[in-house]
Structures are given as structure tokens and as C-alpha cells.
Amino acid sequence: EHLLRNAEIGDAPADDGKVEPGMIVTIDLAGSEMVFLLASREMSSHSEHEVFSTASPLGTAVNGHKTGEEVSYTAPNGKEITVKIKEAKPYTG
User: CB–CB of 90/12 below 8 Å?
Assistant: First the structure.
């Protein structure tokens, strides 16, 4: 009860094309478009999109970058993967 009474709701991220937690991110991954929510894994039951946390390899790679940028990350299989950030919009739930 204490947690519910004292819950704080954070502000939505700015709609400025910068990738940060709370954003729906569209990327080009090896020629295929992929859309996901950058958020804590707990959000996976609340979103129709796949959820990647900022601690995941992909989440770490895109976090803080802007639309139009290319970033790379090392996949769990050791392969280096380059992605292009196509869009980042605040998640409206």
C-alpha cells in the first residue's frame, strides 16, 4: 500500500528523435525493419511491441543516439551488428 500511495510517475521523454527509455524505436536491422519499446523488461506485458531494456546489447547501442544515426553492437553470438535508427517516438501506451 505504501508503494502505491507514494508512487511517482515520470515525465514522458521529449519527442526530439533521441532514443531513450520510454521510446518506440524503429530500426533497420540487416535490411529488415524492427520496432521495439526501449524500457524495463517489466513493460513487456503492457506493450504490443517487443521490449528491450537499456541493459541489453541492442538497447545499450541505441540509447542516447538520434534518428538517422548508425550504431553497432555485439550480439550474444559474438557477431557485430550494425543498425540504423529510423525513428524514435515517445510510447503513449
Answer: yes
| Residue 16 confidence (pLDDT) | 83
| Proportion of the chain in helix, strand, coil states, percent, rounded to 5 | 15, 40, 45
Q: Which three cell numbers stand for residue 20?
A: 531513450
User: Side-chain half-sphere of 75: how many Cα atoms within 13 Å?
Assistant: 8
**pLDDT per position as a tens digit, 9-68:** 556 677 788 999 999 999 999 899 999 999 886 665 566 888 999 999 999 999 999 999
Is the Cβ–Cβ distance between 90 and 68 less than 8 Å? Answer: no
